[in-house]
Amino acid sequence: MKTKLLICCVTILLLSVSCHRKTTIPAIIPEPTEMVVGTGTYSLKSGKTIGIKTSELTPAAEYLQQILSTDYALNFTLQEGTGDITLSIDTTGLSNEGYRLEVTSKGIAITAHDYKGTIAALQSLRQLLPVPGDENADLSLSEITIQDAPRFEWRGIMLDVSRHFYDKEEIKRLLDLMAFYKLNKFHWHLTDDQGWRVEIKQYPELTGKGAWRHFNSHDKTCMKLAETENNPDYNLPKDKLRIVEGDTLYGGYYTQEDIREIVAYAAQRGIDIIPEIDMPGHFLAAIEGYPYLTCFKERGWGATFSTPICPGKDATLDFCRNVYNEIFQLFPYQYVHLGADEVEKTNWKKCPACQKRMKQLGLKTEEELQAWFVKEMEKHFNANGRQLIGWDEILEGGISPTATIAWWRGWIPDVAEKGAKQGNQVIQCPNSVFYFDYGQDSKTLPSLYHYNPVPENLTEEQQSLLKGVQANIWCEWIPSEARMQYMLTPRLLALSEVGWCTTDKKNWGRFRNKMIAHLPRLDAMNINYRIPDIEGFYTKNVFTDQAIIEIPEIAPGISIAYTTDGSFPSANSPRYTGPITVTESTDFIFRTIRPNGTMGDMVKTSYIKSKPLPAQKATPTENGVTASWYHFLGTRCAEIESAELKGSFKMDRIGIPKEVHGVIGLSINGYLEVPKTGIYTFALLSDDGSMLYIDGEEIINNDGEHSPKEIIGQVALEQGLHTIKVLYFDRNGGSLQLQMIDESGKHIPIDTKLLKR
Ligand code: ACM
Ligand code: ZN
Fold first, then answer.
1. Burial label, 168 (beta-carbon count in 10 A; 0-12, 13-18, 19+)
2. CA angle 514, 21, 521 (to 5 degrees)
3. What is the per-residue pLDDT across 142-163, written as a single tens digit (0 to 9) for each?
4. Residue identifier of the C-alpha nearest atom 2 of ligand 1
5. Among 341, 394, 407, 436, residue to substitute to test ligand 1 (most atoms within 8 Å of Cβ)
6. Which of 16, 214, 568, 715 has the highest local Cβ count within 10 Å?
7. Is it the case that residue 590 has pLDDT exceeding 60?
8. Other C-beta atoms within 10 Å of 310: how many?
9. What is the pLDDT of residues 289-328, one digit of tens each?
């Protein structure tokens, strides 16, 4: 019922957007601070002018001129002073990046605090216009006044171009998308173990050797996924391959000329670029050409991470400073990112040069040696007028008060607080919420949307050190632009509101409707967005007589193909057009299709005709279940009970016992007493893997290593007792929750009185 109501609301909103655009509140993302809609209209027509009142805004005016021409075939000329659309700067009543956009029957006035504010205003103006591509679209705008400014100064996207490479045009399209949603920081992860992507003239082997590789395990996994997921977006693009002496190599890099072009392109769109040359770890692509940088000329992997460079040698520090000297020339921005994450320090313990350095400086641990390296590099940054950002490992071993922390390790929950309390600035990107390379399901968007970037226990001054939010997209398993866009959107739209809107301006229901209304805009931009989830069934569904599959509409223009023979749904497969009646056990694969015919996700579901499982004869004596904790380092639940047993705990619910932490394998056992014969629905949420068995039958398979993921399954049960077993593992704390779902679709905890042992 609820789902249908939501769909109705979406449909009404969309109808009103398309037919009565003039009288509705426009679907602008991120939601502006204030919007007042008037009654008159203003029509955009070729032959009109864009007036520039402050010469610094000329690139913004050219950007607008180009958009009006490409998207709407409107020819506007530029002129100094007032025009039909006028751009000006005035700081009165406006804060950083703030703007006022006034559409009246006489014209359009954009007054901004600064250049970035002007770009933000242009994006709002674009979103007031119809979706590009319709030649007959009505280009008249309702009168409106928007007054707007961002909540946070830092609204970023980090892209890893090392693991897989994106060329100049692909980066420009990402910058276009970021600008459209008012994101203003592009953090460019240019180097890592798997590839060096920026030309450094002093060290030509960085790209000569470091930009090219034989296919690695990530490449091979991608190629395999292209087959098993029937998804061409996992293929390595042909233009990133080259044949050298009969060998196929993967790679690519940006020349310094390319970088300058991209920096200018970003600047025109109000986006700063933060380059990252990750060091002292994650540096194998450079070590490949310059092995003297390491402690023992070694190249490869230690116990956990790749072997780093040797901070004991002056030559290493000179090399790092020289590389950054060229980076400073290319990127004219205040912030530069040193990386400094995930450093394998075992060789430093054995290296005479490292140990000598530590002794000379009175450093007691290798963590302090790493902190010394970071501080040395920070001095060099500062001497060149730059400020250093590092991943949150820079907090270990002592941090300088002027460094900015990028908090990524979500499992260390107090980094933002700790950093701010020490007086350091913090950018928030904890992996559990902001790693856009992680898988997506129906919960991903709401949990990102509701993220609160400001812990309440900080003073106002400490809160002001929280610069904002950033999404990071690591590209080990993202080999193409299409796959990158799929992982980015529509999450990027939610990120946009998290970074821009104050809490009182955030509204999940409104955002979701706007997001659906924006899908045609993403289509017009050729963005390979992830289609919102298909709803209306569980992973495993049980029926005794017959079942009816009813799938609510996802969004206008999105269709659904399906198969029942195990084959991949294709454009030729039957389409879902209305309720499907199922009378025999059937495995379905559903697949969404975008308006342009490209395929979205496949969703597997089984419908099982089943008699209720008979009740067990047993006489348990207590309420609750028993949890056994194993020292389990594997990745499959089936192996947990072969590991070493560490202890057993009585529990009144199914979850992780409070005594259990670190390396976890759990086997939770007991009985479930059901009050009447019927079909029961269970939701098993875990990070990492879990399994649910009832009376020895597998009900839910949520196995394998993964971020938090819920799977829902059903079983028919006779009144009485049934054995229940949950297996679970994780290496770092994780999460585990088993709930039931009632007839209205609501998750409910399992009453302790129903659990027996
Ligand atoms: C990171 O994910 N290693 C910053
Ligand atoms: Zn060393």
1. middle
2. 45
3. 999 999 999 999 999 999 999 9
4. 408
5. 341
6. 715
7. yes
8. 24
9. 999 999 999 889 988 899 999 999 999 999 999 999 999 9
The pLDDT score that the predictor gives to residue 623 is: 95
- Listed in order, strand segments (DSSP E) in 620-689 are 625-631, 644-651, 664-674, 678-687
**Residue 364: CB atoms within 10 Å:** 10
Please give the distance of CA 398 from its chain centroid, rounded to a whole number: 30
pLDDT attached to residue 2: 37
Taking 3-state DSSP, the helix, strand and coil percentages for the chain, each rounded to the nearest 5, stand at 30, 30, 40
- 556-569 per-position pLDDT tens digit: 999 999 999 999 99
Q: Which residues are designated catalytic?
A: 192, 282, 342
**Band of residue 138 on the pLDDT scale cut at 50, 70, 90:** very high
Neighbours of 711 (CB within 10 A): 21
What is the average pLDDT across 12-19? Answer: 41
Between the CA of 343 and the centroid of ligand 1 the distance, in Å, is 11
pTM: predicted TM-score of the whole model, two decimal places: 0.91
User: In angstroms, how far is the first alpha carbon of the chain from the final one?
Assistant: 38
650-689 residue pLDDT tens: 999 999 999 998 889 999 999 999 999 999 999 999 989 9
* Residue 341 near ligand 1, beta carbon < 6 Å: yes
Among protein residues, the one with the nearest Cα to ligand 1's atom 3 is 341
Please report the pLDDT score of residue 11 as a whole number: 41
The neighbouring-strand residues paired with 588 are 605
Is the pLDDT at 605 greater than 90? The verdict is: yes
Q: What are phi and psi of 15, to 5 degrees?
A: -60, -45
Phi, psi for residue 510 in degrees, rounded to 5? -65, -40
Q: How far is the CA of 353 from the centre of ligand 2 (A)?
A: 5
Asked whether 342 lines ligand 1 (CB < 6 A), one says yes
pLDDT computed for residue 303 by the predictor: 81
* 432 ligand 1 Cβ < 6 A: no
- From 408, 434, 436, mutation site for ligand 1 pocket: most ligand atoms within 8 A of C-beta: 408
**434 CB near ligand 1 (under 6 Å):** no
The contacts of residue 287 (CB under 8 Å, 6+ apart) are 293, 294, 299, 307, 309
Angstrom distance (rounded) from CA 393 to CA 344: 12
Assess whether the C-beta atom of 276 lies below 6 angstroms from ligand 1: no
Tell whether the model's pLDDT for residue 98 goes beyond 90.
yes
Lookup result for tokens 């009404």: 12
Q: Tell me: the pLDDT tens digits for 458-514?
A: 999 999 999 999 999 999 999 999 999 999 999 999 999 999 999 999 999 999 999
Q: State the angle between helix axes of 508-524 and 491-500 in degrees (0 to 180), rounded to the nearest 10.
A: 130
Ligand 2 centroid–CA 301 distance in Å is 15
Could you list which residues have their CB under 5 Å from ion ligand 2? 295, 310, 312, 351, 353-354
- Cβ(221)–Cβ(477) under 8 Å? yes
Q: How far apart are CA 512 and CA 518, in angstroms?
A: 10
Tell me the CA–centroid distance for residue 339 and ligand 1, in Å.
8
Tokens for 274?
A: 């933060």
The Cα 443–Cα 433 span in angstroms is 11
Our answer on whether the CB atom of 437 is closer than 6 Å to any ligand 1 atom is: no
Read off φ and ψ for residue 555, nearest 5 degrees: -165, 155
Ligand 1: nearest atom to the Cα of 339? 4
What pLDDT does residue 15 have?
A: 39
- The DSSP string of 578-591 is S-EEE-S-EEEEEE
For residue 391 and ligand 1, the question of a CB distance below 6 A is answered with yes
Report CA(747)–ligand 1 centroid distance (Å).
34
CA of 190 to the centre of ligand 2 (A): 24
The answer, yes or no, to whether residue 8 has pLDDT greater than 60, is no
Q: Give CA–CA dist 757/746, Å, rounded.
A: 27
Report whether residue 438 contacts ligand 1, using a CB cutoff of 6 Å.
no
